[in-house]
Amino acid sequence: YGTWFGGNVEFIHCIQMLPFTPISEELLREEWIKEEYNVLAEAYDRTDPPLSEEWKGYIIMAHAVLDPNAAYDEALALPRYDDGNTKSNTLYWIATRPGMGGGPPGPTTTHGPGPNPTTTTTTTTHAPNPGGCCGDNTITDDRCNDPPNDPYGGLGCNACDITNCRYCGFEGYPDC
User: Fold this and answer.
1) For the whole model, what pTM was predicted?
2) Which own/partner pairs from 143-151 qualify as long-range (CB within 8 Å, at least 24 positions apart)?
3) How far is CA 76 from CA 3, 19, 92, 164, in A?
């Protein structure tokens, strides 16, 4: 099987994903991308013809559905993009995947119930805050509801348009 422009595995499989736009996330389900990504992986090791950087960009964008942090690093290393794609589109697509985050772990703050909430701080040293209020490297922090008294002045609050959800644990933001 093949396409009118060639039979490379990346042509056959990536053409079904194009174009990568915000609505593409409704079409590119994780289960399907898992199947496709395993097939596309063979293009990385192929020597004749070698995988072009332009088509590698589309494979990396598909990879972002499974592992956006790894895909972001891969995209930053691309020297060029296909005529139907751009660096900004690639990075935007990856950065808006669920679970996108990064950076070192840090303390997690939680508040207890009742009229006088208490603060408990726990420090982790193994992984970023997985699955925070809107993905990795976010935390639920009720101090975001009161920016004048927030020790960070509201920095990172309103993550994913959730008032008490704070981005954390990467450059420029508070620790998680």
Assistant:
1) 0.57
2) 143/109
3) 29, 20, 12, 31
- Looking at residue 171, its amino acid is E
CA dist 176 and 173 (Å) reads: 9
Helix, coil or strand: residue 28: coil
Q: What is the SS3 assignment for 111?
A: strand
3-state secondary structure of 137: coil
Give the separation between CA 128 and CA 14, rounded to whole angstroms.
31
The Cα–Cα gap between 108 and 65 comes to 27
Distances (CA, A) of 49 to 6, 10, 63: 11, 11, 22
Compute the distance between CA of residue 54 and CA of residue 169 in angstroms, rounded to an integer. Answer: 32
Per-position b or e across 87-98, b if 16+ CB within 10 A of its CB: eebbbebbeebe
pLDDT per position as a tens digit, 122-140: 333 333 455 678 888 888 8
Query: Which ranges of 83-176 does DSSP label H, i.e. alpha helix?
Result: 87-95
